[in-house]
């Protein structure tokens, strides 16, 4: 589990997406590929803020959003599959 600067384990509501992706991989719930792509997806998630999208000169179109959605679903299927559940 992730820890704060003093070494104390963070409670689940304080986890960030980066922590969840890392732990999911560490526990074998997702593959290394899913972890790596998950981090890229996390970076693009930040473009939900119009100011960031504008200042970085990035335009997320419908095709991009569809692609990101498919990646998110694939990672979710890996997590659910790790506990014997299917979406």
Question: What does this protein structure show overall?
Answer:
With 87 residues, the protein is an all-alpha fold. Helix content is 60%, strand content 0%. It contains four helices and no strands. The chain has helices spanning 17-26, 32-45, 50-56, 62-82. Helix 1 runs antiparallel to helix 2 and helix 2 packs across helix 4 (62-82). The longest helix is centred in the C-terminal third of the chain and has 21 residues, at 62-82. It is flat, with a radius of gyration of 15 Å.
Report the portion of residues in β strands. Answer: under 5%
What kind of assembly state do the chains in view correspond to? single chain
Secondary structure: helix percent:
55-70%
| Separation, N- and C-terminal Cα atoms | 25 Å
Mean pLDDT: 89
Count of beta strands = 0
Q: Low-confidence parts lasting 5 or more residues at pLDDT below 50?
A: none
Shape: flat
Mind telling me the C-alpha Rg?
A: 15 Å
Structure classification: mainly alpha
What is the count of helical runs? 4
Order of helical and strand elements? HHHH
Which sheet architecture does the biggest sheet show?
Answer: none
How would you summarize this macromolecular structure in one to three sentences?
With 87 residues, the chain is an all-alpha fold. It is 60% helix and 0% strand.
Task: For this entry, give a set of tags.
flat; mainly alpha; 87 residues; single chain; 0% strand
Q: How would the blueprint of this fold be written?
A:
Blueprint (H helix, E strand, L loop, with lengths): L16 H10 L5 H14 L4 H7 L5 H21 L5
Helix pairs in contact: 1-2, 2-4
